[in-house]
Design a protein that fits this description.
Four copies of one chain form a homotetramer. Chain A is an alpha+beta fold and 366 residues long. In chain A, 28% of the residues lie in helices and 21% in strands. The first copy, chain A, has one domain: Chorismate synthase AroC (Chorismate synthase, AroC fold, 4-Layer Sandwich). In chain A, helix 7 packs antiparallel against helix 9. Chain A is globular and about 70 Å long. Chain A starts with a strand and ends with a helix. Chains in contact: A-B, A-C, A-D, B-C, B-D, C-D. At the A-C interface, helix 10 of A face helix 10 of C. Strand 11 of chain C pairs antiparallel with strand 11 of chain D, so a sheet runs across the interface. Chains A, B, C, D: This is Chorismate synthase. Chains A, B, C, D: It is an enzyme of class 4 (lyase). Chains A, B, C, D: Its EC number is 4.2.3.5.
Chain lengths: 366, 366, 366, 366
């Protein structure tokens, strides 16, 4: 199938493998007249760069983006924006082992099942490098959203069993911490936990949380195209995501109605305010203008050096150790990927809302 | 926007409100030659019928489906299958209260924000009755899947804090229990818990689990159209779903790689078997042919008779009690809805897989 | 495949066969707040009604539309509008002949090739009755367009070799003439021509022309989603259409650049005016705000009573005569179908244009 | 809107402007295991290269394609194939004139209307260079089709008023003639005609015809997704196309049923054969396995050196002469573009047909 396109009106198409000539994205449907240059994109790409800390792979990828189309005199023209990041660190390496067996937790086996064969060098299309295109596109979506007054904050909520606590929440820690955790105490504990993982040749999962401020109300649809449903797909389309929560998420299943309902009262300014936000800013699939809150549960990096049992293509059970420089955790690098997917979803669904009511429509076309 | 269509190749379009003339669905892309009559559909609709137990609303809805097109001489013709269920229990009732304020936990406010006004009678398009079209279509998808050897089992995993236990799991209890719980002890406890909820004019959430057997391998795509991402959207498009998990779900975030990886070994018959199934049957977004396992976290019914604070359209804070016959829990009735959405997703994505490799393609077109 | 849905944001899904229980359409993405009732739809359906003249089938179909959802207190709610027209004139008839052989010019053979079998009663899904859903939906699209100042005029331009002449063009004749021809002299000649066709047990093709006034500029996209390309698909999706022309159409292929270019000059009011309109209101796939002009070439009705050679399912060449009351021409009844498809296309593409430039976007969302 | 993506299952996304850094395409949904390298693509690109004859612009574009992803060890991997052609002949040039006024017949005015401003260097996204991505993708589609036994032949049918004649049709002349005309006498006359156009600083339109052999039967859908409707959109999405015909096209509108119906008889081998092919291989929107025949009417090149009236951005009527090296006709270079769009459409619709009937489906998935 053709699964590399995301969005309907603001539409992106990504391409590229970890060990091919490069990775990239075509962004189509970006409004004309947005000031944009490569530095706008690079800032976002740098947030997913490896080698930022001891907990991400030390290899230097130097992901430098080039914009090939869609910009004229410093502004978007409304036509497709093509962006490429060339792969630079293609070391010649011996893949004979990896080519012959199926790494546990990776997509090696399912690729062979689907395609009949696979590019066995470093995960091919399932590599983390596939997210470069998402982030480059997400940077543009965020810039458009910012111009409309919408801002997205994303951070690490938990690493393994270590979770941030509301009382220690400090937004400034996000950019300070190599783990992007807004709680310095939790970050310290998490660092110790990751040291243990490295020492025992193991890896860790974690949770990413995303909060949207300034969201427009009325976005999303009551049936299949709920805003929450589209956010779920966007977030679960990121490799390694095994769970998605909006608002209280799975905890809502244990709650009673009297606890979970968000009651209303008039705000001092005469507007409507919710007294709580268990729903995460979406009711009946439609945004209510309050904070959108969601979380992604990320599985531990499958590449570990511990011995694991697997099977070869020729049909033998073998014990393997996945060598190489692997992140003991991908959560910090995935923070900006979640933010990108959320931005892409919000913008696309806002574009799809022009026809909600005749008043809007007449106003827009007059 | 146009959000009432789901699927690309096996495509359904639902319509109807709780208090209009009826609800229905058009199923397009169903293969020709499938034996089908109304009883195939009715069986599934009866599973979501209210009044089955003390824990669902006692009102009798008698949802009888009529097939209006797409069948000739007992078989599908390959053209759209239109199905209608007329609304029968439209009692004239006083909606003057509900019309004037915004019920907490309902979509009343977001409808007004989006559309400028709303059909205030019983939730309109956000009513549980919207799921009738989904289930009628799901019944057809399930029948096609069954012919291809794929079977879906769905049940209540938890009600409030009461969860089934693996050691008591008994598949036969699902159809025995009005709560669709495959654990008679848990079901008994859950019944007590719901009695308490009713007594305190409150409601409960819960968790639904779905297991797919016989899934074809190689379905799904490595990037945005991961099978897991599409299942996430499908499940989260059901009203009241606040969380989605595939395989170990949010628990994977707390695990280490050595625990979470599914190792392989040769099966006695010489095939490849996974020693565990933490991934839930999907790796890199592609099915591996093992059991697909997923869960939906459902929030408590928002309609409760306890006093709640809200705001009127004319701008006053008021205390309301939502009267009427409301389910203290919707989880049991939603079981077949989750099953339907899973079936629709699997079938549509299988159809989208013909072009995975040249060998398949040449075989299919020769 | 699932081919019964048209449009992306204003989306319609049709269903039904000529000899099933009915035909219908679900219109999704209609803005909330549009005043709408069944009479708005009926007016359009009546324009495609048979039995209006000697040149359409004398059978009385009495196509009465029922709206089942999406309207509340006389206005659209923004949710799907489901409309059904029940088939009334299902006479029991002997189809044993038609079931056994393939009628020339009909889709009998291709249905068997695609689906393995077919509903042989009267053309099934390829019947002219399939257009009822299109017209019912088109009536709504036209009403929305009218509110935005856009009006569509559609008429018969030619019947067989008889064509209207610019000097005799009289808009009032369209509704006067059973042939919907805006030229009374041409209409008279065409009537004679059709008499001859009837007499010789033959049928005639023709050309339908459509002119759009008040179109918004800037609608359409430079690449695949040209407004002209979408109009081409919309019009060619009508059964019996074999050719499509925009502006000068096929004649442009014979022209020179100096003849075909539309030059500009300032209008007396200071705006830009085109001195000619060979382009038909679209340049580079994008509307320029001037009249959109397009034509559809319609083949002659395939059902004729003359002897024709064909083949039976059991593999014999036979000579057949297609009996029954058939239109000697479908062009007049297809006029409103072309108009409907044009309206649906224009509206959907206008909805897709909100993101053309940042100024529009900021204006819309502020 | 996002209009640079074509196809649903075999999906392409093009990008790039005439005077940006390059143009390209991402091909998604190509089956794995197709042998493919750059020479397969280059062959098709060379067919649209300028400077091949006196009738196309003498500038040398040297369009060399680079494949950046989706190929491993000489075969497609099933993941997106990204191809780039860098723009080489970007001469610095004075665009101050062109920037200030609207060229007749070009999209200058509509771009300003849509986007608020435009990249005025050489047509931007509406340049003929936009078709490079289409042709590169079309080359891949053709290779897949060839492996399935389907071959497409495309040629110039007419240049201005000069048309090929059936009696002189010689397939070998297509590649011999710089005009791609399969009739040496017509080609000679056309050459004279073009000399005249050049001499009078004018340009010519023409007609391209496309014939598909070996088409699979049963492809396409009875309603909106007719094969003919999709071909119409594909062909009309090419800049400068003003008319589309399938089979007899507009001539069918003048015909009688007895002339236009294709009668059947048993073939000597016992199969069904059509005695004529007025329908062009499609009935009811579905292919019948016979030759598909279609035509595109192409308008004359709008860039001519004759004086023309136009308007400046600052609101003055001026007389301009469009200087530069322009093709007096684009038809010969557009032949391979039509072929590409037809190939992309056929393949995508074949992929969408797997679900036509249960027998196919069970066969495919077993």
């Amino acid at each position: 199938m053709a699964g590399s396109t995301f969005g309907n009106i603001f539409k992106i198409t990504t391409w590229g493998e970890s060990h091919g000539r490069g990775v990239g994205v075509v962004v189509d449907g970006c409004p004309a007249g947005l000031p944009l240059d490569e530095s706008d994109i690079q800032k976002y790409l740098d947030r997913r760069k490896p080698g930022q800390s001891r907990y991400s792979t030390p290899r230097k990828e130097e992901d430098t983006v080039e914009i090939l189309s869609g910009i004229f005199e410093g502004k978007t023209t409304g036509t497709p924006i093509s962006m490429t990041v060339y792969n630079k660190s293609q070391r010649s390496r011996d893949y004979s082992g990896i080519a012959g067996y199926y790494r546990p937790g990776h997509a090696d086996l399912t690729y062979d099942m689907k395609y009949g064969f696979r590019d066995y060098r470093g995960g091919g299309r399932s590599s983390g490098r596939e997210t470069i295109g998402r982030v480059a596109a997400g940077a543009i979506a965020c810039k458009v959203l910012n111009q409309l007054g919408i801002r997205i904050l994303t951070y690490t909520k938990a690493i393994g069993p270590i979770e941030i606590t509301p009382e220690n929440f400090d937004i400034h820690q996000i950019s300070e911490s190599p783990l992007y955790m807004p709680d310095s105490q939790a970050a310290e504990k998490a660092a110790h936990y990751l040291e243990e993982c490295i020492h025992s040749q193991d890896s860790s999962g974690g949770v990413i949380e995303c909060v949207v401020d300034g969201m427009k109300p009325g976005i999303g649809d009551p049936s299949f195209e709920k805003l929450s449903a589209n956010l779920a797909k966007a977030v679960c389309s990121i490799g390694a995501v095994k769970g998605f929560e909006i608002g209280d998420g799975m905890a809502a299943a244990k709650a009673k109605g009297s606890q979970n309902n968000d009651q209303y009262a008039l705000s001092p300014e005469g507007g409507i305010q919710k007294l709580t936000n268990h729903s995460g800013g979406i009711l009946g699939g439609i945004s209510d203008g309050s904070q959108i809150i969601l979380r992604a549960g990320i599985k531990p990096t499958p590449s570990i050096s511990q011995k694991q049992s697997t099977v070869t293509k020729s049909g033998q059970t073998v014990q393997i150790e996945v060598k190489g420089r692997h992140d003991p955790i991908i959560v910090p690098r995935a923070v900006v990927v979640v933010e990108s997917m959320v931005a892409l979803t919000l913008l696309d669904m806002m574009f799809a809302s022009i026809n909600s009511n005749m008043d809007n429509l007449i106003r827009f076309f007059s």
